Amino acid sequence: MKNLVTKKIVLHSLIGFFVAGGIAGCDSGKTTKTETLRIAIGTQDTTINCATGGLLIRELNLLDKYLPKDGEYKNVKYDIQWKNFTSGAPLTSEMVAGRLDLGAMADFPAVNNFVAFKQAGKKSVFLTPLSGSITGSGNAIVVPIDSKVNTLSELKGQTISVPFASTAHGLLLRAIQAQGWDPNKDVQIIAQAPEVAGPALKSNKIAAHADFVPFGELFAYQGIAKKIYDGSQAKTATFHGLIAAEDYAKKHPEIAKAYLQAALEADQLIRKEPEKYSELIAEKTGIPAEVVYLYHGPLGLQTRDLTWKPEYRQATQTAVDTLKILGKNDGSFTAEQFIDDQYIKQAFQASGRDYAQALKDYGKSPLVANDALTGEPIKTFNRVTQIWVKDEAKVRSYATPEHAFQALKTLQDEGKSIRVVYGQDYQSNIKLLANLAWYATDKQGQIQAFLLKDDAQKWAKAQGGQVFDFNAILQHVKQA
């Protein structure tokens, strides 16, 4: 009888334990049902091509939609923490210190993240790209707006600032190397964050500044600088993506998958309504919607892409190799030790999408529109020109600069205010701020847009045409 009572007491104690504490999973690394689970995410809001992995997920509450809420996670309380950074280096410091679990940053700082984790006896993993360019567009080198410098080769012996350990830092080092210069002797490179570089450019305190998304375009849009070198000239892929502390991702793979599903939905939302979400990003970051659309609109400066294309794998390895220039890579690791694509593949599958098919798709966000002047469907896109009219929800699209500039004259005659005009660069097919572009004509008078004056001059000479700046080409079209 005594043994029976003892067994009953033990049984009741066990039942009480399970009811009060929840049944833990068989894997000791898994979360118990009654645990509060932290999800701490580092974002870079002003680095606007990170928006689908941070700002939009946060502002639209997309993560909660995909977090597991049954089975092992039935009674879990999620503590979602967001922290914003202006660059990848401080985000990395917080991750290594264990105060962040996930984060968004570019390829070069991400590799620095991996090195920092490695030095701390830990490991981080690169989950997925978010947005990038297989040719390198997005990073840029700018000079003051009234500078007489028009090419990188003219900066020898000058002071160039850059946010250290950023993807733009990697670009600058490679561009200098391509010139055959010694980065320690032929130029003076100083560390400068974009918020400091803007005033420095405006007051001509620096000869040039190299920066990442979106500052090359933002400073140009603000009228304080002009772009003399676009990353696409380097022909080296660049991108921003999502990283995680490996121990966190392994312990909570469902969380990593949910986060990536949220990123996939954010990507689809901005693809469908780029103006709407460009305005939202602008509201939260202070980056003008006109600059945001330059990246996230159709035919944008970069392509949103959540697959590990070979070019992005190589870009990560290039970042590893670039660290050797800085003496921070002992050659003991490769990019493939950092990249872990299992979570994004799971997210694609859970979202009902085909990863293998997306991996083969190199297209930019498509433009599906009729020419706003003729009403005809736009079928070719290399000369597309767009106008965003103030107080209009949608950007107007035109198949050619000729159509757009004719329409622009009419809009101005009607007293309409123009927010921005976009063009497509003939050389690299990147999206341009049309008012800062150069234009060349051929013998038939057809207009092509160029980022760089030198490119426009070479093309015009070969075609027997002329070169114009924005105001001059508008006058030329008006007279024609």
Blueprint of the fold:
Elements (H helix, E strand, L loop, with lengths): L1 H20 L14 E8 L11 H5 L2 H5 L10 E8 L3 H9 L5 E5 H13 L4 E10 L6 E5 L14 E4 L4 H12 L9 E4 L2 H9 L5 E4 L3 H7 L3 E6 L7 E8 H6 L1 H20 L1 H12 L3 H8 L6 E2 L5 H16 L16 H9 L4 H6 L24 E5 L6 E3 L2 H13 L4 E7 L6 E3 L4 E4 L5 E4 L2 H11 L3 E2 L1 H10 L1
Parallel strand pairs: 1-2, 1-3, 6-7, 6-8
Antiparallel strand pairs: 3-10, 4-10, 4-11, 5-8, 5-9, 12-13, 12-14, 14-15, 16-17, 16-18
Describe the structure in your own words.
The chain folds into three domains: 36-134 and 238-360, 3-Layer(aba) Sandwich (D-Maltodextrin-Binding Protein, domain 2), CATH 3.40.190; 140-234, Periplasmic binding protein-like II (D-Maltodextrin-Binding Protein, domain 2, 3-Layer(aba) Sandwich); 385-479, no CATH class. A hairpin with a 5-residue loop joins β16 (438-441) and β17. The strands form four sheets. A six-stranded mixed β-sheet has the order 2-1-3-10-4-11, sandwiched between helices. It has 18 helices and 18 strands. The model is unreliable at 1-28 (pLDDT under 50). With 480 residues, it is α+β, with helices and mostly antiparallel strands. The longest helix has 20 residues, at 2-21. Keywords: Signal, Transport. It holds the Pfam family NMT1_2. This is Putative aliphatic sulfonates-binding protein.
